[in-house]
Design goal:
With 290 residues, this protein is an alpha/beta fold. It has twelve helices and eight strands. Helix 8 crosses helix 11, helix 9 packs across helix 11 and helix 10 runs antiparallel to helix 11.
């Protein structure tokens, strides 16, 4: 049995293995493998290419399988989906394993680098820190709201006050932006920040024809939702305003519809927020400078 490629569908307790030979014929199919068994099975296989989706625990299993001389590659689940939804199979664990086995051999597939233990430990610290920042911001906003009922209003940071001058950005969104972005120096420009937050359209281009789809929804979902809700408040309060921003927003609604306009305003606000944080006192909007 000459196995050259193995696709593994990971789960919490039961895995599925799908292996093929050099003729792409399925010769190694294990529909139900307990969590304690994959290491022993993989250890007895000749060195081959192993593909898995980059999900929970994938980096751990990739490191373990690599110890036996195998080449392990991880892929984002969205890149595996087209090979599963080819009309030949339904959505189940066996189909997932077969799709992974096929996708990992594609020459133009984009893979996720396998992280070592030190890299994962550092990323865990970053994720934990991000969680603490979100909890701190939520607690701070909750306390501000409660004590304001007694007539006490806490001072805002200068960065937050600047951000709150933008339409659709209030205290909560401003504090979340400052906590998430700091001075905005991690991003080259506002568009890069908008792409990080998932407020730019995904590309589905072919040949000379460019096709733009829905927004990618990558990055911080909480921050993105705050920006979109703020954009909706801008649309609700447009009325008969004739300033530069309001005319632009009204034109978006007329040309693209309500929801696309809301996302466009959210993306624009995020780019403006980057400029405010990045340039500080040197930043002035065109309508302010006029």
């Amino acid at each position: 049995m000459n196995i050259v490629t193995v696709g593994i569908d990971l789960a919490k307790n039961v895995f599925v293995l799908h292996g093929v030979d050099q003729y792409v014929k399925a010769v190694f199919i294990k529909p139900k493998v307990a969590r304690s068994q994959p290491l022993e099975m993989i250890a007895h296989l000749p060195p081959c290419l192993i593909g898995m989706e980059a999900c929970s625990g994938a980096h751990y299993w990739a490191r373990e399988f690599s110890r036996f001389g195998h080449t392990v590659k991880l892929m984002a689940p969205k890149f595996v989906a087209p090979y599963r939804m080819s009309g030949k199979r339904g959505k189940n664990d066996a189909a997932d394993a077969a799709a992974i086995c096929e996708a990992v051999t594609r020459p133009n597939m984009r893979f996720v680098p396998v992280k070592d233990i030190d890299q994962q430990a550092i990323l865990c610290l970053h994720r934990t820190r991000q969680g603490f920042i979100e909890e701190r911001t939520a607690l701070y906003n909750r306390l501000r709201g409660l004590i304001s009922e007694f007539g006490i209003v806490l001072p805002q940071k200068v960065e937050r006050l600047r951000l709150m001058q933008l339409p659709g950005i209030g205290p909560t969104t401003a504090s979340a932006l400052v906590a998430s972005l700091g001075g905005g120096h991690d991003f080259k420009n506002g568009r890069q920040l908008a792409a990080w937050a998932g407020l730019v359209p995904g590309q589905y281009s072919s040949g000379s024809k460019a096709r733009l789809g829905r927004i990618t929804k990558a990055g911080d979902a909480y921050l993105r939702s705050l920006l979109v809700m703020g954009a909706r408040s801008v649309l609700a309060g447009l009325g008969g305003k004739q300033d530069r921003f309001s005319r632009w927003a009204r034109n978006r609604v007329e040309r693209r519809g309500y929801w696309k306009a809301a996302v466009a305003i959210a993306a624009k606000n995020l780019r403006l927020a980057w400029a405010v944080l990045h340039y500080g006192d040197d930043f002035r909007r065109i309508d302010e400078a006029a």
